[in-house]
Amino acid sequence: MENSVEDVIGNQIIIGEDGQYTFANTIEDKEDRYDVSVPVFISKSNALIRRIGKSTLLSEQALLLAIYKAKERTRDSIKGTQLEYYYEDLKKKSGADFSQGLIATFTSTELKSMMDIKTSRYAAAMDDLMNMNVFTNSWHILYNNNGIMTDTACVVASMYDKRTGKVTIKFNSDIADKIINLKNSGGYTLLDSSVMRKVSKDLATWSIYQLLREEISYKEAVNRKRGFADQKEYMTEFGLSEFKFLSTVNQVDLSSTDPDQLACARLIKEKNYEEAEQVLPKSSRMYDDWKDFRKRVLAKACKFINGWEGTGCYGPDIEDLMEYEADCAKYHQTDIHFRCEPVKTGVGAKVSAVRFYIRWDRQGAELVAENTGKETVSVEDNTVKPTVRGKKAAFDENAFLDSVSELIDEKMKVSELKKIAEVSGYDIEKIRITYMKLKKNGDEVSSDMIIAAMTGEETVDGIDYVFYRETLPGFSKDELKAMVEEARKHKPLDHKGDTDLWIEGYISYYRDKALATADDTKTTMFKRLMDMLRKDYDSKAHPEQIQRTVKTVAKEGDYTQRQYTEEQISEIERKKLGLPTKDNK
What are the structural domains of the chain? Predict the structure, then answer.
């Protein structure tokens, strides 16, 4: 006698008299199928968007669909049926219990349709993912705060049925709030499935789009929380090494026992991305040269996100910005546009970070809605705001304070974190950059120090030490003071721009010359630089940096141009007016 039942993944299970299970794969899947003709917003945790690890494009595509289809399953739903015995038997043989928990099941047809996957190697590729334990080893959420580190796997079990092409993923129910948005709270980013299909041609582009989409959604929510009007563009900045890990250009295997991989994973948990990149094996480290990174990573992202060929890098010149505006008006690929620029610091102006400017693509979002037959965006006041069931994602202040707490190693009270958030204008990037600057000295950082640095209260004797430490690294506070005071003496009287920028440019000009001076002079770099500043020895600094003004005085029979210090000019002007001078007092 045979009994026939259907399991929850759509197979027909035939239980023979000997108790053995066989399958007759003729029953249609009873689960909700993904209909590619109806695009949806998928709410993805920001923690998963920013997770760092080893991954592939196919596994990331599978994760997104699994998040959408994840449902809480209970034993009661199959209690007393043959399925209960089937899953018990499967558990005994494999150790995996798919009868209960946060579980997602999808077919190969669903995934291929959602992401426009046309490869003939899909089955082999999925088989490889299972053999390499990618689903259980790649998706981890790392936590590091006040000396406490945790590493939590998002997936506890996975199953791939080669006969039906079905994949079943069991998520970690302990961190369900980090995986699916059960409470419709903050900390999640809405991703349009039709847009994700367009950027699913390259793993780095896939990751970069999600990062930028998260940033603009978050910053806009914070802006509204503060009662400000929506901006045309939102700026965010990533350290170059950090961005390579977040964009999956550099990958670290968190489950590896290799010493270099272990060292890299430890440094990442400590948020020391630059050192992590250096210890990463060369086989896993990509594009050390900025030009290669710009050409091979940013160029692809620009093509698939913006819609045009290029790197997305635009300089500060008005011609570049006009070209960018023209491109934005012409091309509409996704719901956002971005432009970026390298941030250079230190000796040799090495690229240390990438600064992005992100904007909504109003027309691109409308085209998505028009082509899919579903309103996926609402358009108001020339801005594009994603909606889900007519509700806008709310800003979660507690989630923001949690992010600040995770960012700062020192233990701080909630009241201190809240004060930091308020002073920063709820700008997590501003807090991060300020904190990292203060942390460079190796000292413990207090909330007062962070607030003082953000409000400019570290300005002493009219000198903004926060600014000069960043732009002129390697000098002590006393040395900075001496250089700034000396540079002030040479500032043109009619200079109407930013004084700090003028001084920094003036000092930087001679610093580069001091660096080029032979080391056998037996003097420190500071002393050589001070000597040049005092003498202003070549009477010219880079005009684009400091725009030095040449003062001229026409003497009888002598019409040549000469330069004068501020004190000399004052004496000349007093003499013209017939006032007492040093010479005739």
Answer: 33-183 (1.10.10.10), 200-250+286-395 (1.10.10.10), 397-457 (no CATH), 492-549 (no CATH)
